[in-house]
Every structure is written in structure tokens, then in C-alpha cells.
Design a protein that fits this description.
mainly beta, 8-stranded antiparallel sheet, 7-stranded antiparallel sheet, 15 strands, globular
């Protein structure tokens, strides 16, 4: 009888302890201002094959997680070490991701630079639930930053636009965050886009459809991309 009572008390203590730990974790989880990683958290490498070997420099190999976007009149896509160089096309050149992907509550970070040219060197097309949108860096003569499209209006027309100079040959750190109520973007830790999505129609220009569901493209410009990373997070951990 005594042994049975002891086992009962031990089970009760274990249940109470588990409940306490669970409650503690839930509390911290909800108050944490930094998104916590969930299984979709990976670097989108395009220069490493399935065996972990680096592909030959100067070669962009099809059949991996990235593929060329097959724009009409596109330029060449090549590798230079850990960098993807997206060449000048007539008009667009790009790559798109074929691997796992989040549709909501995620961040994408990358580094991008304009090698030569005077238009956008990083047109990042991304999912917003079952729709798509594009973050444009350096459009309209080289200075526009904005989202395309909101309410059927381009980045220069929908209120998301900001204007800034970009230096050719300089790397910029880009961060994009997609949540149910907002699309946000940072350049070198400067918050350049903070747009509410509530009640708005999210879409893309038809020219970038080949970038879906996630792709990076240039317009009559050579751009370079490296260190692309996607991190999804639970809604409870949104800042």
C-alpha cells in the first residue's frame, strides 16, 4: 500500500513539474521579442551539391535547389565562389528557389550588390500566403525601394516607396519580414519598409511571374547575391 502511495505521489509531482515547465516555456515564448526558429530555418545555398561538395567556380548547375527563372532575353547566371552573379538581360535575369518554403511568418535575409547597370539589382519575389509580392531594390533609374504590387499599383505608386542611392560594387544587407498584418524590410538595419497589409490586395507585375514562388531577379542590370537564408517562426513569437 505504501509503495502504491509513493508511486502515486511521484507521478503527481512529475505531472505538476511538467505543467510548470510547459507554462514557463509558453510565457517566455509569447513575450520574446525575437522570433524563435522553427524547422524551416536554413541557408539557401546554390553552390553546394547533395554530397556537400562545392560546385565548380563559374558554373551555375541546374537541378539543385535553385534554378534559372527562364525569362525571355535573360543574361547569364554564374557562380563566383559563394556568390551568384545574375547577369544583365534584355530585360530580366533571375533565379528561383525550388526547395521548402514558408508562406507566412518568416524572414529572408541576404546580401546583394549592383555590379553594373542602373536599375534594380535585387527584385526579391516572395510568397504572402497564396499570393506573391516583390521587394524592389534600385528600380526606376537606380534609387527606388518599394513593394510591387499593392492594390494593383507598382512600388513607385502605392506608398511603400522610398528613394536612396546605391553604390555599384557595394554589398548591402537585406532583411524581409512577412507576417499576417505587415510586410517589413531593412537595408543595413535601417527599416525602409513598414507596410500594413490589412484590407489590401497583394500581387506582382506579370513580368516577374517566373520568379514565383520565391526568386531574385535583375532588370537590365548585373547583380550579385550571397548568403540567402530563410527563417520561419510561430505567430506567437512575432515582435
Amino acid at each position: 500500500m505504501r509503495a502504491s502511495q509513493d508511486r502515486s505521489r511521484a507521478v503527481s509531482r512529475a505531472v505538476i513539474a511538467l505543467a510548470a515547465v510547459t507554462t514557463c516555456c509558453m510565457t517566455v515564448y509569447a513575450k520574446d521579442e525575437k522570433p524563435k526558429s522553427v524547422p524551416i530555418d536554413f541557408t539557401m545555398k546554390c553552390n553546394v551539391d547533395k554530397d556537400g561538395k562545392t560546385m565548380p567556380e563559374g558554373q551555375f548547375e541546374e537541378g539543385k535547389a535553385w534554378e534559372t527563372s527562364d525569362f525571355y532575353g535573360q543574361g547569364k547566371v554564374t557562380l563566383e565562389g559563394d556568390t551568384v552573379v545574375i547577369g544583365t538581360g534584355n530585360d530580366m535575369t533571375g533565379i528561383r528557389w525550388k526547395g521548402p518554403l514558408a508562406k507566412m511568418n518568416y524572414e529572408i535575409t541576404l546580401e546583394a550588390k549592383r555590379v553594373e547597370g542602373s536599375d534594380f539589382f535585387c527584385g526579391l519575389t516572395f510568397p504572402y500566403n497564396d499570393d506573391f509580392c516583390s521587394l524592389i531594390l534600385g528600380g526606376w533609374g537606380g534609387r527606388l525601394v518599394g513593394l510591387s504590387s499593392f492594390d494593383h499599383m507598382d512600388a513607385s505608386e502605392n506608398g511603400s516607396a522610398t528613394w536612396r542611392d546605391f553604390e555599384n560594387g557595394k554589398w548591402y544587407s537585406i532583411r524581409l519580414r512577412v507576417t499576417p498584418k505587415k510586410i517589413e524590410a531593412w537595408i543595413d538595419e535601417e527599416n525602409v519598409i513598414d507596410e500594413s497589409t490589412e484590407g489590401r490586395k497583394i500581387g506582382i507585375r506579370w513580368e516577374v511571374e517566373k520568379s514565383c514562388p520565391l526568386g531574385i531577379a535583375t532588370w537590365q542590370t548585373t547583380g550579385a547575391i550571397r548568403n540567402v537564408r530563410l527563417r520561419a517562426f510561430p505567430a506567437a513569437a512575432q515582435p
